[in-house]
Amino acid sequence: MATVKENLQRAIELTESDSPRLDLEVLLCHLLGKSRAWLYTWPEHQLNDDQQADFEQLLKRRIAGEPVAHLTGSREFWSLPLKVNRSTLIPRPDTEVLVETVLALCPQDTVRLLDLGTGTGAIALALASEKKHWQITAVDTMPAAVALAEENRAVQGFGNVQILQSDWFSALGGATFDVIVSNPPYIDTQDPHLRQGDVRFEPVSALVADEKGLADIRKIAAQAAGHLSESGLLLVEHGWEQGKAVRNIFSEYGYKDVETRLDYAGRERITLGRT
C-alpha cells in the first residue's frame, strides 16, 4: 500500500503528460471520492489494497496515453460535470470562449439557438445554465453522441434544451434561429497531431475535415444563412491558424460584421458573422 503523497510523487512516470501532477490528483479524487483539498489535508492517508490496485490500473492506462476524462468518465465544462466517453470529443477549456462570446453578444432573455455537432452537449448546456428562457436545440449526426448529450441534459435538468439526431441541418426542416454555434471538425487529415496526446482516443469523425480542415466550416457557413433570422449570428470554433481562411469563407457567403475572437492563449479561435 502507498499513501496519497507517495502516489502523487509518481507523477514523474507520466513523461508525455502536460500536467502529470494534476492528472494524478484527478485520478485519486475519482478513486477515493474526495476533493483535491482533501488530498492535501491528508497526504499520509494510505490506500487500501483494492484502492491501490485500482490506482495502478488507472496509472498504467494514463501512461499509455488514455485521456484522464476517459479514465474518470467525466469532464467539467463551464462548472458543469459532464459525462464523457469515446463517442465524442472531450470538452476543451478554450471552447468556453465561444460560450462567453455568445453571452456577451446576446444579452436578451429570449433567444432561439442551435448548437451544431453538440457532442457531449457542453456548449448547449453551458448556455442553458446561464439563460433559462432561451430555446436551445442541439444536434449531432452520431446516435451515440445524441444519447450522451441527452443523458447529460437529463442529469443537469435543463428543460429548455432539445437534443436531436441530425446531419448538420438535415432534420431541422425550415426551422430558424437567432444564433447558430458550432465546434465542428477542423483538423487537416494530414495533421501530425492526430497521432499525439488525447486525440488518439477521440473519434476521427469529430476531429478531421477535408479542404485542410475547412470543409465542414464551409458547409455550415453555406447552409446556416437559410436557418438564421434577420441579423442572425453564426459563430464557429476553428484551429488557431485558420482565422483568415474562415473569415474569407464567411465573407464569401455574405455574412456581415465578420470578426475573429481570441482564445485564452491569445490565438485566433472563434469567428463570427451576421446575416
TrEMBL record:
EC primary class: transferase
Entry's transmembrane regions: none
Alphabetized GO MF terms: nucleic acid binding; peptide chain release factor N(5)-glutamine methyltransferase activity
InterPro entries: DNA_methylase_N6_adenine_CS, HemK-like, N5-glutamine_MTase, PrmC_N, RF_methyltr_PrmC, SAM-dependent_MTases_sf, Small_mtfrase_dom
Gene that encodes the chain: prmC
EC number(s) stated in the UniProt entry for this protein: 2.1.1.297
A Pfam short name: MTS
Protein name: Release factor glutamine methyltransferase
Keyword Transferase carried by entry: yes
Release factor glutamine methyltransferase N-terminal domain boundaries: 13-73
Binding annotation for S-adenosyl-L-methionine: G117, T118, G119, T120, G121, D140, W168, N183
Species annotation: Microbulbifer agarilyticus
One record GO biological process: methylation
Alphabetical UniProt keywords: Methyltransferase, S-adenosyl-L-methionine, Transferase
Residue ranges occupied by any Methyltransferase small domain in the UniProt entry: 95-191
Role noted for this protein: Methylates the class 1 translation termination release factors RF1/PrfA and RF2/PrfB on the glutamine residue of the universally conserved GGQ motif.
Residues that, per the record, bind substrate: N183, P184, P185, Y186
Catalytic activity annotation: L-glutaminyl-[peptide chain release factor] + S-adenosyl-L-methionine = N(5)-methyl-L-glutaminyl-[peptide chain release factor] + S-adenosyl-L-homocysteine + H(+)
Family assignment from sequence similarity: Belongs to the protein N5-glutamine methyltransferase family. PrmC subfamily.
